[in-house]
Design brief:
- The structure is a single chain.
- The chain has 19 helices and 25 strands.
- The protein has 680 residues and is an alpha+beta fold.
- The chain is globular.
- Strands 19-18-17-20-23 form a five-stranded antiparallel sheet.
- Among the domains are: 7-113 and 254-324, 3-Layer(aba) Sandwich (Rossmann fold), CATH 3.40.50.620; 375-563, Isoleucyl-tRNA Synthetase, Domain 1, CATH 1.10.730; 577-666, Nucleic acid-binding proteins (OB fold (Dihydrolipoamide Acetyltransferase, E2P), Beta Barrel), CATH 2.40.50.140.
- The termini are far apart.
- β21 (643-645) and β22 (648-650) form a beta hairpin.
Length: 680
Amino acid sequence: MEKKFKRTTVTSALPYANGPVHIGHLAGVYVPADIYVRYLRLKGEEVLFIGGSDEHGVPITLRARKEGCTPQDIVDRYHNLIKKSFEEFGISFDIYSRTTSPVHTETASQFFRTLYDKGEFIEKTSEQYYDEEARQFLADRYITGECPHCHAQGAYGDQCEKCGTSLSPTELINPKSAISGSKPVLRQTKHWYLPLDRHEDWLRHWILDEHKEWRPNVYGQCKSWLDMHLQPRAVSRDLDWGIPVPLDEGAEGKVLYVWFDAPIGYISNTKELLPDSWEKWWKSPDTRLVHFIGKDNIVFHCIVFPAMLKAEGSFILPDNVPANEFLNLEGDKISTSKNWAVWLHEYLADFPGKQDVLRYVLTANAPETKDNDFTWKDFQARNNNELVAIFGNFVNRALVLTWKYFEGKVPAAGALTDYDRATLEEFAGVKESVEHYLDNFRFRDAQKEAMNLARIGNKYLADTEPWKLAKTDPARVATILNIALQLSANLGIAFEPFLPFSAAKLRRMLGMDACEWGLLGSTSLLAEGHQTEKPELLFEKIEDSAIEAQVQKLLDTKKANEAQAQTAAPVAAPIEYADFEKLDLRVGTVLECSRVPKSDKLLQFRIDDGLQQRTIVSGIAKHYQPEELVGRQVCFVANLAPRKLRGILSEGMILSAEAPDGTLSVVSPQRPVQPGSQVK
């Protein structure tokens, strides 16, 4: 017997705050989660949508070290960029917080202490690489060496990125520290482990027997892990960036492992939003918990996090985890390190106002049970052939004809023909299909059924041709347009979960106040005489030139990646040391950065140089987004004679390293220094 719930807590995977978000993130997690939440809200159900940034872990410390800033600088920059991208795409979180918040630190620490006090952890001492020069233990990503499988240089302590093999640091040939470059030594260190093997029996029953309705990819991956038998998993590590292990003795220099503290972020973000009532969303048995994630997070949300919740003892367990597979880009795997991605903030710059187009295409190609592919040609075709030619065309014709013949007022419907009744009957049946698919997390099929509503309407107008009857049978025209407007109003409800911006615009043009799921299928949403607004186009064609520009951008990226293997430029002619001494090279902190108007190459900086603030104009706009550079420290020539660029007085030159392919990377100190420090 299916269990009835009073409310639903929906979480979406916490994006890692060391870079912006791309279409793979949107397709895999955030659009499907938003569709589901909007659907539940339309039904009048009690639902909470929790999101936030994952801000601890080694990759963030590596990026900070590379850019010469603090980990907090990195997460502040990308948390704000990610949050803004989600807002612009209509991802309707009730809260979007972060794992560096005080509430999260307190919540994660309390969670650890509860499990520790209950004896749910085991302590183990093991050997781990230690950097004697840097005087710290090394996380896996801080160790590089030769891959023992493909013998590529620069493999990390956890994985070789060339052959993709998972590694342990001790497998590397000639390992070295990524911090000092020295050869690390093995030292003993103590950590706390969650003994997943103790939880294997109940996990096996709970997943394999009680949740056979989970997606095959989720169920299958869980079964594979369980069949291999679970092992204890460390919940702490030696690192200086993260939540300190909350113990009085023996935990110096140790933090909670990011995989342990991150999912607790769902709970802490709820506490931050609802400090007095958060428990009903996490502890009440009549609350349903649903996690939206990508396939790389299945083990954490289906096995590890449930084991943590069960060990704590007072929390509900997830009812469903509709994980998606991966979205590829033009036939290749999306790679952030290779810039093989469509970044959301760049998409909005190139296609302003077209958030819904991308939401539609990503849902139509959703990788729900297997990897799928995004191509710019398909993006264009779905926009032009479906959104414009079917949905937009139907709504526009219905409204334009209403204004032409009835001054924009909803005409009275007369006697219905058999064709009218058949159309309305077909239309009414679609609601049940859309509901069925949404309830079962089949968002691709649900959107396709919703588009069938527009197809029915478009065909109805094409078949009845009211424009041919205006002079001979105005009463029939009135009936046809009344039906067309009622169908349009239904589209304003049906597409609210999928295309929120377009649905809201459609409802505004129709003058609709109500938007409730229960009204879907009604043929009396707009009363006789109701005044509509002047019609505007819901969607517009995307021209070949816009698509060609996106394809060329990807081709340029691929070319740049291939060029990285090329040799460096030859060394310039020797100079005397006295010539070098004339240069005053310093470090400054970027306070502000913006694009120079009417230039696609120049960025304008305001820099703290330790003595004052100065303006520098630099030709690196094709290599950086302005927001990536704010807060970062950069090296610059301080005594270069000022000169005007595009009417702006530039007081120096920012130093950049140019790769063989022409890619520029700003030169920064390895660790934060005082602004004005000289480069020697």
